[in-house]
Automatic annotation (TrEMBL):
Pfam family, one: TPR_12
Family matches, as Gene3D superfamilies: Tetratricopeptide repeat domain
Protein name, entry field: SH3 domain and tetratricopeptide repeat-containing protein 1-like
Keywords assigned: TPR repeat
TPR repeats: 1054-1087
Length: 1201
């Protein structure tokens, strides 16, 4: 299946950007295949794979039936609609109201046709169109042992062989109806089958000849066609113009007059064109009431959010009630069918005993009461004859009545009694006896047959008996006559309870390639199956009828919407919910005269019934086009309630999906209309309050106040009502958004007083909460805490669940307040309370909010990595339930870092697992930057786990992904990060040089990214120093110094001077090292701000003293540096440093400068520090062989090792 986005009324291909969005959607689908596998299975196929880049889904089939069903759904346009519902989010349907966006699906017809032929060959039967001289439909059997193909023409029954026939298989539906079963019966020549492929209305014909047992007429008389004349059938119903007699006429015995006309209509005049009865008015009323109840938001909450689960359950229950009501209505209708009862006497031989029955059955014309007789079973007959204990007595009674009717020449009563006897015999499987009675009923002498319903019942029962007895010639004869009646008499199938007889009409139309006749046969078969309460068997015929309706122009446009609705209901009963939704959409959006307001609302009813299961919401946005279509079909003045619910529902949907401006526009239009008064005062007031709330959400508090003032003015002046509390509460919110705190405070107090007066605890709690929110906004924290606490107390006393969403938000805000005040335990308590409440009502969005607050608490305020991991994993679970892949990837990334921070082997492996999961999601979403970071992080974790064989692979893929973005700066960032993986490690550090020097630095220079150059030069100089490559390191250290000077960056300048000093020191250039150390010290801030700065002075001055004393051999200057280091150490209070420095000074003054007094002074100070540090011995002997660079050599050796 090839998917493509289309836009506009003409369904033209969308731009590349939109197609790329579809690719990303398919990528997401690849990560979680459950949805697409379920959908493909519902479409009667088997999922294979997805290629998101080519926007292709690969499927396969295992049976012939699967290909048939799938191709049917494709022809009916369901595939694209099903994929739209699966792939697109809820906002799409609101946006597509203006853009007319959608998905179109194309399939490889050649491949599908090859698979179809393959299945036919496997089954050993091959029904094809044989493109020879006549173009007949034939049955082919594959060659056996080198023989040719065995051919059986289904048009004339001829057999033969063909060496290599040009074969084209018939469509799967024609394979399903199996016309080859009647091949020996359908002996009409193909030329006759194709003479006329249309229906004709009331032309006049000239007679050439007349059979004796049908309509009596003479040559040259004019016959009026009754109903439809179908050229492929042997008979049609005609009316003799001269006498008005009605009967069957041989099609081949007449010719047309000049008034001959053709038509593609498949319905008869005055025929019930509904395929099944739907209580559309009841469904319409219930659907509007349900939408109103859900979308008429309780504005006193002010904290509006999505519909809760109780409302979802209510949707399902209402739909169930509608279905139950429909079934109850059907039962009631059957009870009201006219009945007759016969009072039986003891003496059956008396003519008076049967007088009532004969009088009832002797009517020449058809009576409505007879319909029940024609469809009756023995159980029904027994229940309507009193005084008889079994069927045998009833048969005996009817036998006497039959003889009496024959003697009295009451022909119609005799015919009907014979029919009833035939029914009783057929019910006991006495088919031969039943056939005798049916034939007698047919052959009773009379002037003409005027009861067409009795005639059709006799024909259908005789055809069924002959079919059962395999008397195919007579079966065809009566089936042909029944076909004529079906094409002429509306609803004349009451006497037939077996669809097999009707299938003859369909098979004959298929062989004749007469699409209108095929469509009518499908219509009648579907109607019969539904009458027999066999909806599953009706589905193929309804599907074929809808396909033919597209191929035969104007055949049944007026009924298409109703047929789609019936099919949608059947799909829903079979739990094919996606197909049911697509079918309902076709019903409501049908172009032309087909769709009505009732059809649109019936579609909405079916959508709402399955919304919770498909989308997890009570009202999905898919109802928007249905409502818009319904509103467009009728003027607002004629259907004010519909216009009201249309605006209310759409504004509600736009509001909850973050489109407040469009919500305001929809709601304001209906209120501006003059017909708003027709919806009632209470609904108008509620709509005004809802509009005011939308204005508030759309940052239009001034306009909201105008609307609220209008509502207040409409309320009684001298009587306070509960509604006033709602209005004052909303006025306070409007004033708060207008930053009029005084007016807001007065309104809040008025709202609280009114709610308290009426003991309206729910609105009271909400008013207190809103007052508390305002106090938080103006920093009146103590008042805010008081009002919010009172609100929580009131909320906790309420028993119903309708307040829970507002309660949760109050708990979260109160918890946030306590955390900001430093009362972390109370804040945590309220967060956990909110989470438990949200879990109790199964509201995922509220659970997410509470969980995020707890994650932030344990991550930033009260660091606890274990708790943070627990709540982030719960957040991950929630995101998986709502299917937000983007946030799911970010949370996986976050959890990975939390595990990595634990720095244990087990935690590192967990971090790797979460990183790989996030990587899969970022790949599916096409987020290349995130994907590159995930590849690199996985490589870093492998490096930590010392699985070095995989590190280079992951790092290389990260680089390639960064390059694929085409963003040079991002590539530079990733190359530097790749080097950091090795730079910050204790193994393979030399690998970082390649990333820093050979890859990242040239890009930084080329892009003039000065800061990146500075970082890279600093890292390179430090790394080369650690690796003992000091000469090369000096070059990068000087570059870092130059860049720092150009940027006037004192800190980096000091670092550069210090690193250069260290490098010169390692190279033995002591004067240069001393110079650069002093330059670094000169850049230190004065006065000192942190202990670390004093410690830096200690270390650098001590290093300078060591260089001058041990390397330059100048004890006097060395003593000066040691004195400066000692001063810094004293300022810092570091006793160990003071001990070392006092010992060094005592050594210099004792051995080099020969100052005994100072030597003793520093020795005594050193002894004091040694005692404090529990050091027993101090060595004052000078070590002239000591080299200060040894410390770097040791470091380098350790790093290398």
């Amino acid at each position: 299946m090839q998917l493509a986005m289309v836009e506009g009324p003409d369904r033209l291909p969308a731009d590349e950007g939109t197609q790329e969005v579809l690719c990303r959607k398919l990528c997401v689908l690849e990560a979680d295949l459950s949805g697409v596998v379920t959908l493909i299975s519902e479409l009667s196929a088997h999922f294979v794979s997805i290629n998101s880049e080519e926007r292709t889904i690969f499927i396969t089939f295992k049976t012939l039936e699967e290909i048939w069903k799938f191709s049917t759904y494709h022809k009916m346009g369901f595939l694209g609609q099903c994929m739209e519902n699966l792939l697109m989010n809820q906002e799409f349907w609101l946006i597509s109201l203006d853009q007319h966006s959608g998905i179109e699906i194309s399939i490889k017809e050649e491949t599908l046709n090859l698979m179809y032929k393959g299945f036919l060959m496997q089954e050993g039967k091959y029904i094809v169109d044989l493109y020879l001289e006549k173009g007949d439909i034939a049955l082919f059997e594959p060659p056996f042992l080198g023989s040719g193909w065995t051919v059986l023409s289904l048009a004339d029954g001829a057999r033969g062989t063909k060496p290599k026939p040009a074969l084209e298989p018939v469509i799967p539906f024609h394979e399903y109806v199996s016309p080859y079963e009647f091949h020996m019966n359908l002996l009409t020549k193909s030329t006759e089958l194709r003479t006329m492929d249309f229906f004709f209305y009331f032309p006049r014909w000239f007679l050439k000849s007349c059979p004796e047992n049908e309509l009596s007429f003479q040559a040259g008389e004019r016959i009026i066609i009754l109903g439809l004349l179908v050229a492929c059938f042997d008979w049609f119903m005609g009316k003799l113009e001269r006498t008005g007699d009605i009967g069957l006429v041989k099609t081949k015995l007449v010719k047309t007059t000049s008034s001959f006309s053709e038509s593609s209509d498949i319905f008869l005049k005055d025929e019930d064109r509904q395929i099944a009865t739907l209580d559309q008015d009841k469904i319409k009323e219930d659907t509007i009431a349900l939408l109103k109840k859900i979308c008429q938001s309780d504005v006193v909450k002010h904290i509006l959010s999505e519909v809760d689960e109780s409302q979802r359950t209510e949707v399902s229950s209402v739909s169930s009630k509608q279905q139950m009501k429909k079934e109850a209505d059907d039962t009631e209708w059957s009870r009201e069918i006219p009945r007759f009862s016969v009072c039986l006497e003891q003496d059956n031989s008396s003519p008076d005993v049967h007088h009532a029955m004969l009088s009832f059955l002797s009517s020449r014309d058809h009576q409505p009461e007879f319909l029940l007789l024609y469809r009756a079973y023995p159980e029904f007959l027994i229940s309507h004859f009193e005084g008889h204990s079994d069927e045998e007595e009833i048969v005996a009674y009817l036998g006497v009545a039959r003889e009496l009717a024959r003697k009295k020449h009451v022909s119609w009563a005799q015919s009907r009694i014979c029919f009833l006897l035939g029914q009783l015999c057929a019910g006991r499987s006495k088919f031969s006896q039943a056939r005798v009675y049916y034939e007698e009923a047919l052959n009773v002498p009379r002037d003409c047959f005027t009861d067409m319903f009795l005639l059709s019942a006799i024909y259908s029962n005789l055809a069924l008996i002959y079919l059962t007895q395999k008397n195919h010639e007579k079966c065809v004869r009566f089936s042909e006559r029944l076909s004529a009646l079906l094409m002429a008499v509306p609803d004349c199938f009451f006497g037939c309870e077996d669809p097999e007889v009707f299938k003859y009409v369909l098979k004959k139309a298929v062989l004749a390639k007469n699409q209108p006749a095929e469509a009518r046969a499908c219509f009648l078969l579907a109607k019969l199956h539904l009458k027999l309460k066999d909806g599953m068997s009706a589905i193929p015929f309804i599907e074929r009828l809808l396909i033919l309706a597209d191929e035969v122009p104007d055949a049944c446009d007026e009924t298409l919407s109703q047929v789609f609705l019936v099919l949608a209901r059947l799909y829903s009963d079979q739990r094919l919910l996606r197909l049911a939704e697509s079918c309902a959409k076709r019903a409501s959006l049908q172009v032309g005269v087909g769709a009505t307001v009732s059809h649109c609302l019936c579609s909405i009813s079916l959508l709402l019934e399955n919304a919770s299961e498909l989308y997890g919401v009570a009202v999905p946005t898919q109802v928007a086009p249905y409502l818009t279509r319904a509103a467009a079909l009728v003027s607002p003045s004629m259907e004010p309630v519909l216009g009201h619910i249309h605006a209310l529902c759409l504004s509600w949907l736009f509001h909850i999906h973050g489109m407040p401006d469009r919500a305001v526009r929809y709601m304001s239009t209906v209120l501006d209309h003059s017909g708003v008064s027709s919806v009632g005062q209470s609904d108008t007031t509620a709509a005004l309050l809802w509009l005011a709330w939308l204005y508030i959400c759309n940052q239009q508090p001034g306009t909201a106040l105008e609307v609220l003032d209008a509502v207040l003015s409409s309320l009684p002046e001298h009587c306070t009502t509960q509604l006033e509390g709602v209005v004052y509460n909303m006025r306070a919110i409007s004033y708060r958004h207008s930053v009029d705190i005084r007016q807001a405070t007065e309104s809040y107090r008025a709202a609280i007083e009114i709610c308290e007066e009426f003991e309206d605890r729910r609105n009271w709690a909400i008013s207190l909460a809103n007052f508390g929110f305002m106090c938080l906004q103006i920093k009146a924290k103590r008042l805010a805490e008081e009002y919010l606490t009172q609100s929580v107390e009131l909320f906790s006393e309420l028993e119903d669940e309708e307040h829970e969403l507002s309660f949760i938000l109050v708990l979260l805000d109160l918890g946030k307040h306590f955390v900001s005040q430093g009362n972390h335990e109370s804040g945590k308590l309220y967060y956990e309370w909110a989470l438990l409440s949200a879990m109790f009502i199964s509201h995922i969005d509220s659970q997410l909010q509470a969980t995020r607050h707890l994650c932030q608490l344990y991550e930033e305020v009260c660091p606890d990595e274990a708790q943070c991991i627990i709540y982030n994993e719960h957040q991950l679970n929630l995101l998986q339930r709502i299917g937000d892949k983007s946030l799911e990837g970010e949370i996986l990334e976050k959890i990975s870092q939390l595990y990595l921070n634990l720095a244990t082997k087990k935690a590192n492996r967990a971090a790797l697992d979460y990183t790989k999961r996030s990587l899969g999601i970022f790949i599916d979403l096409g987020r290349k930057r995130k994907e590159a970071h995930a590849w690199l992080k996985a490589g870093k974790i492998y490096h930590i786990l010392q699985q070095t064989e995989l590190v280079d692979l992951y790092v290389q893929v990260a680089q390639d992904m960064a390059l694929s973005t085409g963003d040079t700066l991002f590539t530079l960032e990733m190359l530097e990060a790749a080097g950091d993986v090795f730079f910050n490690s204790s193994q393979d550090r030399e690998k970082a040089i390649c990333f820093y020097r050979d890859r990242a630095l040239p890009i930084a220079v080329k892009t003039s990214s000065v800061r990146s150059q500075l970082r890279l030069c600093n890292k390179l100089s430090e790394l080369l120093l650690q690796l003992g490559q000091c000469s090369e390191a000096i070059e990068y250290a000087r570059t870092a110094l130059d860049i720092s000077l150009s940027l006037a960056d004192d800190l980096n300048e000091r670092v550069a001077f210090h690193r250069l000093a260290t490098l010169y020191h390692c190279l033995g250039q002591f004067e240069m090292a001393e110079h650069h150390f002093l330059k670094a010290l000169s850049l230190c801030p004065s006065p000192l701000q942190y202990d670390e700065e004093a410690l830096y002075y200690v270390r650098v001055y001590k290093t300078l003293g060591d260089i001058v004393f041990y390397d330059v051999k100048d004890p006097f200057d060395a003593a000066g540096y040691y004195h400066l280091a000692l001063a810094a150490a004293m300022d810092l209070g570091n006793k160990r440093s003071q001990l070392e420095l006092c010992t060094q000074l005592a050594t210099i003054y004792h051995n080099c400068l020969m100052d005994r007094e100072l030597s003793l002074f520093f020795y005594q100070r050193a002894r004091a520090f040694a005692n404090d540090l529990h050091i027993r011995r101090i060595n004052l002997a000078p070590d002239y062989s000591f080299r200060t660079t040894a410390q770097y050599k040791n470091t380098i050796t350790g790093a290398t090792r």
